[in-house]
Protein 1
Amino acid sequence: MSKPRVVIVGAGHAGGSAAAFLRQYGFDGPIYLVGEEPLLPYQRPPLSKAWLKGEADADSLALKPDSWYAEAEVALRLGGVVTEINRGAKTVTLASGEAVPYDFLILATGARARMLPIEGADLANVLALRTAADAEHLKRVLGPGKRLAIIGGGYVGLEAAASARALGAEAVVIERERRVLARVACTELSDFFQRYHGERGVGFELNAGVEAFVGEDGRVTGVKLADGRTLACDAVLVGVGAHPNDELAKDCGLDCAGGVVVDLEARTSDPHIFAIGDVAHRPLPLYGRQFRLESVPNALEQAKQAASAIAGRAGPTPEVPWFWSDQFDLKLQIAGLPFDADRIVVRGDPDTASFAVFHLKGDLVQAVEAVNAPPEFMAGKMLISRRTPVSLEKLADTAISMKEVAA
Amino acid sequence: MAKITYIEHDGTEHVVDVKPGLTVMEGAVKNNIPGIDADCGGACACATCHVYVKEEWRDKTGTASAMEESMLDFAENVEPNSRLSCQIKVTDALDGLVVSMPESQH
């Protein structure tokens, strides 16, 4: 019997890592990696941070060097677009018409930036930040004296604002809600980040609706707000969330629910097809629900799950979901998700720029958001995974070390 | 180039050439050496690139920063020679470096 053949659709962090883990786990069948971008798999998180500030180059972004793919016998099809999955024949069809057979298919198609369907959205310099090409474009239009309008006060927006300031550009964040990070963080953290950014020259327009982008000669020159004002700018960054690229999966009848539904092996409703990374709607055993996560740790964990299942070895130990963000000199580390939390404990003083917010359900830690506070993050992550009760008084008392709190 | 030996927890050795300027973590990841996951890509945010630095190399690899120390404080299987490999920059002086890995990074 010939060796099984794996086709990976999507050559981002998840897809590239799945190929690498398959080889680490001793899988020696053919691997075919198809990606729409012209680049080898690379890390996206630095795009809004180190890369935008010019502190990282293409080599350091790449997951593996060029030579690795040939050595590991991973066949690359960059710039390749898959148009259809034929589950009966077990093939994927490329835009060229070519049918590529698989025994196992891994969907790692990621998510795409949501854009605003408003007037002027097609003007030049109205940008998203998702790919290296996006980041390159944004970097070109930033610089001393330039003015960047950022639509959406989420992580991408705030990271880009901090990077823009580091490059000497002006930045204003325009947010529909009354606080930044409204969808992803608690009020305490939102207030802190807004204040910290404000003190470093980032402007904010909260509760602000965006009517249109206005321009001259096809290039954006301003953002027209719902209250009638127009804010002048040289470029617009739209950071208002992402859509899972689950159309291929839907079209071939796989179960989808705002992402491709998978189990703890990252297997879809078709046993020969896996889905990993931003596109997957995955179980979160710690929280008793299914959810879609957009993060590198999630991409890596699911890449390991799929690679383990295909290579026939035991799956990885389930992990606590976690996230990080760098803004100015702040390192934000988040562990867990605040599902079902009924109380908040703040440990430390936000005015010192080193503190943590714990989200608890009774005396169980569900999530922790730690700003320049690695012990709180690390101990919090441990407490979340162990499901051991904690004393709220001790947790709030910085005189008691996290080691003792978690003991 | 600096020759670096990475030893997996089961004793498997990997000897690779790493370009000065990269970190010891990047040397492992770019060569697909199992056991160093480096979830955060080198941001000192996750402690999944934990290694043990062989005794005779401890001086040359320097000391951990306060941030690295506090991450290591809560990692599993920490020893006095534990370091986060994303925080060790490779230089010519590290030619011959030997690091080994803990049983698990998670």
Protein 2
Amino acid sequence: MKTIRKSLAELHTLLVNKEISSVELTGEYLDHISEFEPKIRAFITVTAEKALAQAKKIDQKIAQGESIGPLAGIPMALKDNLCTEEIVTTCASQMLREFIPPYNATVTSRLEAAGAVLAGKLNMDEFAMGSTTESSAFFLTANPWDLSRVPGGSSGGSAASVAAGEVAYSLGSDTGGSIRQPAAFCGVVGLKPTYGVVSRYGLAAFASSLDQVGPLTRTVRDNALVLNAIAGYDVLDSTSVPFNKPDYTQFLENNVKGLKIGVPKEFFEHGLKSEIAELIKQALKTYEQLGAEIEECSLPHMQYALPAYFVISTAECSSNLARYDGVSYGYRAEAEEVIDMCETTRAKAFGPEVKRRMLFGTYALSSGNYEAYYVKAQKVRTLIKQDFAQALAKYHVLLSPTTPTVAYKIGEISEPVACYMGDVYTIPVNLAGLPAISIPAGFVDNMPVGLQLIGNYFAEGLLYRAAYAFEQNTGYYQEIPALLREAD
Amino acid sequence: MTISKQDVEHIALSARLKLTEEEIKLYTKQLDSILECVDLLEQIDTTDVRPTAHGVELFNVLREDEVEPSLPQEKALINAPETEHGFFKVPRII
């Protein structure tokens, strides 16, 4: 196997045993990026020089006999809505095309402290609004499994870069499925942690009560290792939750005997492709053979999750994006007076998806509509939360498909409402603030399919155990896109 | 409910977004189709339901009133489109 596709644990061993240096390893990834970027276009910025400088530091540590952590010296990349000091952070928007953050996001600092090597910043839907990465103001990213298809979104660059082997892992953000859906579309593992487990400090806000940062990796163990580094209370994020962070790798046990899995029947509606339903049934059989107990269950309010999400996410987005006014940072349009400057700045630098959502959010929050839409949606959110609470009192985890279809063809989704339908199984989880993971579950039409496991608050460990057992007994993670096989 | 052209003009003003005539037409149509989906919410009775603001709710996140390190002025200004004497500079206000 090519070195760059090895697991984090294997790469760590190679580095510690001095079979490869971090500079050499980083060089291999950078070469691979140069070779594949013309086709994949996952990166907005490649930080080759800084990556090699960081790699050199880690090599010095190894040479001096210092012990290094499990992520040290290994290249990764960050979604371009995570602030990186002195490295341009665009949110894939003309608004922030030249924005250079004066500070690091907490996740950036934590990975840096863990010795991680930042290889670059990844493409995404503009301000994380979209499900295909097509709303990026810069360019389209291709799905490594089929270049005529989208990688999903909004963390499309994060999923595509990992699937294409350009980095060992990446971070994305998930507001309604933006980590799990692209992970499913690109055949990688993507975790949305419990709301408050990972700090949002330095994550450019889209919908603050829903946004959560999480890892995209090739394997479940890699995912647990990255979560170990980024999770934990942060005084700089007032919604960060103080909790006792475990070592997530301790849960990686190939054993699901007695695990109670609930299968919500509502997650098999809404245009689920029959071949995907078939794969999920097979997955349930696998779990059953491994000794898990499977039972159908119901989350009766799920059909209201999508409209509630529409209202809450757009309302929060209209408020969060009010800060882009051309005054203190970001793009500014020339104008004679200040209101005109602000209105023209926003008209010129925001794309159509962002404008549409801001307009709807403003509508939902305006007087006369506030009670009927915003407060109503927040009440529906309570009902959705209660549905999950009841189900998770009975079952350890809930299992569903991650998405109703495989990755779309580029340009296939044009209607704004159709775009949200693909997130119908992932959105309810964000409304409730629960953790969920998408793992590879097979292929339909040669495209990867994802399986979603949803757990109780702070039960990331249990999700990892359930995901690990499935992964170890199916081995879908070993499949790689034809594009990579041909290049080997 | 339906969204009119006047509604869109009004919310665009509130959102400080200058829209072209074509954009107003397009967004009137699109917001209307979103509204159709959102109006599904009317079907549920939520009379005695308390609203939820966050999935994991925290209350009274406070700290001691002590000076903590913060962004120095020069750094806070590095991305400003225009500055003067250490301030953000904007075009004429009145």
